[in-house]
Amino acid sequence: MEALANLSISWLDPWLMFLTAAGTLAGIYVGAIPGLSVTMATSILISFTFKWQVNEALALIAGVFIGGVYGGARTAILLNIPGAPSAIATAFDGYPLAKRGEAGEAIGLTTVMSVFGGFVGILALALMAPLITSFAIQFNSRDYLLLGLIGILLVGTLSGESFAKGAFAGALGVLIGMVGLDPMTAEGRFTYGSITLMGGVPYIAAMIGFFGVAEALVQLHNLDLATIKQKIDRIIPKLSDVKKYFWLAMRASGIGTIIGALPGTGGDIAALLAYDDAKRTTPNPEVPFGEGAKEGLVAPEAANNAAVGGAFVPMLTLGIPGDAVTAVIIGALFIHGLKPGPLMLIETPHLFWFTVGNLLLANVFLLIFGLTGVRIFTKIIECPKAVLIPLIIVLSSVGTYAIQNNPSHVYWMLGFGVIGYFLKTYGFQVGPIILGVILGPMMDSNYRRAMIGARGDIGTFLWDFVSHPISFMLTTAFVLMLLSQTPLWRPLTARIRRTRE
């Protein structure tokens, strides 16, 4: 009964309910603006809420977190500019749907599936936190390295028909992510004596440049095309669609919850893995993936919102952040005199159930706000390109500058935009580049730790990949995924099917 009482605090207190609703609404629009990240918004909120009661601060922050993860899907669908990294996979099929005039239906479907995934992740947080945590804590550095390698391999399969182009784009992203000071030795890498490069390449500038500016430059070739009127007569998805994609959403939510519970990962990797899973397990989609397949919306959106609940698991039970936002929330808890970790659940169990109830309430508001204001958003894509393209570049410049008030970041953004334009022109996808930037530093640091654990011996290092259960499973998955991109894969799978028959 005590747990139920703590669970319902946010639902019964009008002020906490208002803060949760306001945070969710603000998070949706913050997440939809490229350059304004949920992590940044949460960091700013801490400076305003450190004198508040802890329940009030967490209510507002949880709302922004839930809304922000979803918000990136809107601009991904309408403009092919993900508002957040977790929406990169959503753009693969969301933007083609918008180009066909089905933006309203696409946004409605992503809203419902995001809410569904959010509920699954929160339910997992409430019921299986100890189990998921005990699994996540067993991951070693080599396992995170394998997870990163799998992610880089996946981007090749998501990049059109050419695996080679996708792999090249992913490797280019890793190279960009390596620029700056070495995290272990503090020596410059690829800096060429430049003090500016020692701080690394600004990630937000790269994301906005490759997605926003590059897309704007590509659209300059299509100024004479008539604008597509969006079909907004039906925003709430059909019940038949919800039933049809239920098990796909359930599977994607499971992937998102598990990936979210792994410290240092997040919704971007979860969405990528879920998208690839949908692509591999959907034998005959009505529309090919990358051309407007609804499965390509359902999987990543269910996964990235389920990852929110998963990310709270290690944060609340171990004091280890599941992603960047929960790392900021840990800071907020310390400011309020709390110490996240196993003792927190013993000393302040009410806070755990309050967090669960607050996330549930934020998810309800996400459904309400996510299905409203769609008509205003869809008007963006109906604007004449001669007006829209300069507006995109201006907003991209303002968003990039606002991160650190650094004009050099705007130059980075424009430079990446030009590079992205030429890559798009020659059939390369820019999504793998950004994912490479994200995964590169994680792979680098975990490779170094794994090698230190093996005491520099390459034989011991390689043996560790097959001598531990989790590492063996991930290594097997990596090898099978690599083989699936070779000409030997189809004859091999065909022979296996004939043998079973």
Describe this structure as you would to a colleague.
The chain has 501 residues and is mainly α. The chain folds into two domains: 2-467, no CATH class; 468-501. The protein is 75% helix and 1% strand. It has helices at residues 2-7, 9-12, 14-32, 38-49, 54-79, 88-99, 103-136, 141-157, 163-178, 195-198, 203-219, 239-244, 246-261, 267-281, 295-318, 324-335, 342-347, 349-370, 374-382, 385-404, 407-425, 431-453, 458-467, 469-483, 489-500; strands spanning 180-181, 188-189. The chain has a two-stranded antiparallel sheet. A hairpin with a 6-residue loop joins strand 1 and strand 2. Helix 7 (103-136) packs across helix 13 (246-261) and helix 14 (267-281) crosses helix 15 (295-318). It is globular.
Short description:
Helices cover 75% and strands 1% of the residues. The protein is mostly helical and 501 residues long.
* Shape label: globular
Report how far apart the termini are.
Answer: 55 Å
Number of strands: 2
Calculate the mean pLDDT score and round it.
Answer: 78
- Low-pLDDT residue intervals, each spanning 5 or more residues: none
Strand content: under 5%
Whole-angstrom Rg: 22 Å
Encode the helix/strand succession as letters.
Answer: HHHHHHHHHEEHHHHHHHHHHHHHHHH
Give the proportion of residues in helices: over 70%
The side-by-side strand order for the widest beta sheet comes to: 1-2
Oligomer: single chain
Q: The biggest beta sheet, please? A: 2 strands, antiparallel
Total helices: the number is 25
Q: What structural class is derived from the secondary structure elements?
A: mainly alpha
Q: How many domain regions? A: 2
